[in-house]
Amino acid sequence: MKGIFVTGTDTEVGKTYQACKLAHALAQRYSVGVYKPAASGIEAGTPSDPALLAEAAAVANRLGEDYLKRVCPQTFELPLAPPVAAELAGSEINESLLLEGIQWWRTHCDFLIVE
């Protein structure tokens, strides 16, 4: 499987925007997976980064109703760095879940974008 990591040093610097553009372009030619291991600032009823990534890669049609859990297995409501948001919510980042999530994509796409 081929893939790429999209990283940045701060919030709101365009990581999701660039990952979406890349996913949309690659989805014209490949079966594209998108994976954001943990996301914070997720509020019910508002567009989220995982939803935008899934739409750009057209994964909802391929994966069914639980597609957002495949794109982003861990979400937190507070708009802080995911480890901080998890801690304040009385939780923590589950490293096993992170690894399981990326392993799943190895057999479900030709190209994986990790943000």
Describe the structure.
- The protein has 115 residues and is α/β, with parallel strands linked by helices.
- It contains six helices and five strands; from the N terminus they run βαββαααβααβ.
- It has helices spanning 15-26, 49-57, 60-63, 67-71, 82-88, 95-105; strands spanning 2-5, 32-35, 38-40, 74-76, 111-114.
- A three-stranded parallel β-sheet has the order 1-5-2, sandwiched between helices.
- α1 packs parallel to α2 (49-57).
- The longest helix is centred in the first third of the chain and has 12 residues, at 15-26.
- The chain is globular and about 40 Å long.
- The model has no long low-confidence stretch (mean pLDDT 92).
Quick recap:
The chain has 115 residues and is of the alpha/beta class.
Q: What would the keywords be for this entry?
A:
single chain; 115 residues; three-stranded parallel beta sheet; two-stranded parallel sheet; 6 helices; 42% helix
Strand content: 15-25%
Measured between the Cα atoms of the first and last residue, the distance is 16 Å
What shape does the CA trace take?
globular
Helix proportion range? 40-55%
Mean pLDDT score: 92
Query: What's the helix-strand series?
Result: EHEEHHHEHHE
How many helical stretches?
Answer: 6
Which stretches of 5+ consecutive residues score pLDDT under 50?
none
Number of strands: 5
Reported for the largest beta sheet, the result is: 3 strands, parallel
Question: Helices and strands: which structural class?
Answer: alpha/beta
The side-by-side strand order for the widest beta sheet comes to: 1-5-2
